[in-house]
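thread from #wetlab-drylab

HS: before we spend reagent money on co-crystallization trials with pyridoxal-5'-phosphate, can we at least see a predicted complex? here's what I'd submit
DV: go for it
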Amino acid sequence: MSDLYQSDLLRLAASADGAGRLEPPRASVTLDNPLCGDRVTMDVRLEGGRITALAHETKACVVCQAAAAVIGRHAEGLDKDGLAAARAAAEAVLKGGEPPAGAWAELALFKPVAKVKSRHACLRLPFRSLEAALAADQG
Amino acid sequence: MSDLYQSDLLRLAASADGAGRLEPPRASVTLDNPLCGDRVTMDVRLEGGRITALAHETKACVVCQAAAAVIGRHAEGLDKDGLAAARAAAEAVLKGGEPPAGAWAELALFKPVAKVKSRHACLRLPFRSLEAALAADQG
Amino acid sequence: MMARGFDHALIRAQFPILEPGVHGRHLHYLDNGATAQMPKAVLDAIVRHETRHRANVKRSVHFLAEAATEAYDDARESMKAYVNAASEEEIVFTSGCTGAINLVAYSFGSLLEAGDEVVISALEHHSNIVPWHMLAKRAGVVVKAIPVTPEGRLDLDALPKVIGPRCRLVAVTHVSNVTGAETDVAAIVAAAKAVGARVLLDGAQRAPHGPIDVKALGVDFYAFSSHKMFGPNGVGVLWGKSELLARMPPFLGGGEMIARVTLEETTFAEPPRRFEAGTPPIAQAVGMAAAARWISGIDQEAAHAHLQSLTGRMLEGLEGMGGGRVRVVGPLGLQNRYPVVSFIVEGGHPHDICQLLDEEGVALRGGHHCAQPLMNAFGVTGTTRASLALYNDADDVDALITGLGRALKKLHL
Amino acid sequence: MMARGFDHALIRAQFPILEPGVHGRHLHYLDNGATAQMPKAVLDAIVRHETRHRANVKRSVHFLAEAATEAYDDARESMKAYVNAASEEEIVFTSGCTGAINLVAYSFGSLLEAGDEVVISALEHHSNIVPWHMLAKRAGVVVKAIPVTPEGRLDLDALPKVIGPRCRLVAVTHVSNVTGAETDVAAIVAAAKAVGARVLLDGAQRAPHGPIDVKALGVDFYAFSSHKMFGPNGVGVLWGKSELLARMPPFLGGGEMIARVTLEETTFAEPPRRFEAGTPPIAQAVGMAAAARWISGIDQEAAHAHLQSLTGRMLEGLEGMGGGRVRVVGPLGLQNRYPVVSFIVEGGHPHDICQLLDEEGVALRGGHHCAQPLMNAFGVTGTTRASLALYNDADDVDALITGLGRALKKLHL
Ligand SMILES: Cc1ncc(COP(=O)(O)O)c(C=O)c1O
Ligand SMILES: Cc1ncc(COP(=O)(O)O)c(C=O)c1O
């Protein structure tokens, strides 16, 4: 697991890409990890079901911060299906597999998380928040 | 314990001394053993705090029936203190000791019950019912 | 674990407690309906957990906590498989069968209104009566009961009368702990669904006898205890349909069941966590799961046949003993019944019978079996009960019969 | 059991789980506040029970049932001695500390009226918050909270403001699971009694540290869990004053807690049975009692001194680490505090700290510790916590300090 805390992941987390708030968002969702109290707020603006702008506020561990930063980098332009594909890539990594090439290839940095089940929720939280934000807008 | 089921105790139980009801009683109390559902009803008539007549209805095991019969034989004339002494004699037997000489010497038949804790309640139930009946009259 | 077929000696050897015997005699343990004994596989699973994986779950990021959490999750997975639930989220670990039924009575019960009806039966264990009486008192819910037939079965003819339009829940036993009768679940479910009511089965006496299929049963809740199915005390399972659990408020409050807590208010987690407040019975759940897997590893058909044959032997032996003084309470046949046999000895009290049989090394249970309404229906205060488990054999049954013969003599009956 | 004095090596040797280590390293288990490890004496007591005395209690007349009942009664007697209760009738076995507090919230809570007040504190574990929120919602009872000082202690100056004439119960922790602060119970009791309110102490974090004297404390209820005091999961104790328990209605309904049941109504048994519905956690109670006796067998003064010295070493080591980034949350002194130490690393998340320390074999806990209101009061979402038990030593503390140093580097802090 110490391979998790490599400079690349730490840098990704520290980049805090996409951090901030949107004023006004079209949809905003805050989710907690009830087991540790970590919290991610996802603000999105959407057009035709596609994300045109995104910002997140992430009070969380390195894993969760890095995941939020990956989303911050690559989420623009995604629709629900695109997001589902990204989430699937993350889940594949949590199962010990490889992410597909492309925008989400960076998720390979999370491979060491696979064997630490208690941290899976940390990687998922930003994805779940964004999914909920998209759903909130559509429903 | 098989020494419990001796002819003397079985005879005592079968004697059902004092079995029946008083019409009307001065006080009547029915108690259950909630663990097995056994039930003893004690009817008493009192004068000046002394038992002048007593009858019991006992739906119970041999131990309990025999205890009710001992009471049926010897309870007349007792007041609260006399009953307390009888109960103390029973408790002494349950602790493995001997009953005092006198009316309650018969309680020696219950000595084998001492080592079977789950049956202590069976010996106590008629005593408790009678105590409650006396208390009901006085209070 | 076990080859096909049923090697009784092999099974018996897995229960160390049966070895030493009691009062210098072979132990014939026929009190399985109260608590079944624990096979070595289950004890080993518990010891292994306590000595290798002990920690609190779901909270800490360290080796032992990860191991404990995985063990607890695996236990849930095993119990899901044992009852054929749709998902692990439908498995709530409780303190036992009683805890599980109380959870439903408080949580589902809080969704009911005054005048709504809960239907139980005259065959129920107090654990499936008292929680409903308490709900009635709290909320004005009306409790009705399906009567029993002289054979100790639910009187299905009475269903139309008892299950009316205000009925919201039918809560009945799957197998009676007194008569061994198996409930005709399909009939109950049909009657309940016809009025839109839910069905809870008390599976305490059924769970020890092999995997359960809650989907096939078509019920909504299923409750059972670990200690009656060869597992440890202090744990049980409530299975509930997820759409139903999702609509139910929490029962116990505490750690692990919250979404967020402030000093002013609490929001709650999703099931099953919503219903598992505080540190759960972790090692016990691990043990219960080991028990479920142990049972599942046995050839179910062979086990069933073994127990049927012993039950038949017992029924035959008992009927007519003591010149007709001994009378079986419950079904006399082997159809739709489990290996629980109650009997009455005219003029003989259950506790005296049990006491005398104990001297023969035969462990029975006497009394009302926490089923006083049924005792009232039969007009007795108690019965004597012999309940079988996989490790029992013909020798145990014969010890009961001959011992009972001697006891009757001793009591001059 | 133990000679006077404190032989740490002898104690440590009784915990088989500490032997193998983790990740190829020595295990430094500092997550005792979540769950303490189990000494061999306790495990042996459980195994002995399961293999020699296993049966249901209070029901059957046979050798094993007698043995199980006696074991369960003895366990109650041991717990009575451990808390110095007036009688065994004051000891209620529950599913754990959470179960115990919920029992009070439901049962004692049902005696309260809308507008009555329950006073908790900002220092509480969720298990002593959520049940009261739920009661507030059920019954219109008002929940108020004693604030905390910056040191993580109850703010006693606020008592007159918070504990008013409508207060019926003050329910606070005896020792904080986050800061280790010991509550000034005398001050709380005085303030509560002045308005005729009862006092419940959540003793989950105090119980592992030696016998308790509920009489001297002057409280009305005391709740704690077995698994934090070296015993098994799935069991805890609610101690309550008998005159109070006698007036409380039952909480869970089921077998063993009734006086009589008909289809129409139930009457209830006396305490403690009234509060122990269904088959209790028998083997677990036996294990908890073994744990209580194991603790009591240790020289309390020496044990206290040992843990105080380790706590001091830890506080010294932590303060000022990382160029001032590391900050202890809670009392900095050793007065009225127990060996639970929380700290914050500015810019470092508790889970990352825990993860990196786990690689060093150091087991910590990070997060909100089921005390979100306290986290809010401190303006953080979580802390990292090290909590000590008797088997810990200076080596464990040093491993934490050096490991934390390396973790800070790794995280570029
Ligand atoms: C102070 C305090 N109270 C209550 C609890 C709840 O104990 P349990 O989870 O064993 O019910 C804990 C432990 O988690 C605690 O630390
Ligand atoms: C049919 C039935 N239901 C419920 C129970 C209660 O189970 P427990 O005491 O394990 O909670 C029992 C056993 O006592 C039972 O036989």
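DV: Residues 8-30+299-410 of chain C form a domain with the Aspartate Aminotransferase, domain 1 fold (CATH 3.90.1150.10).
HS: ok that's useful, forwarding to the group
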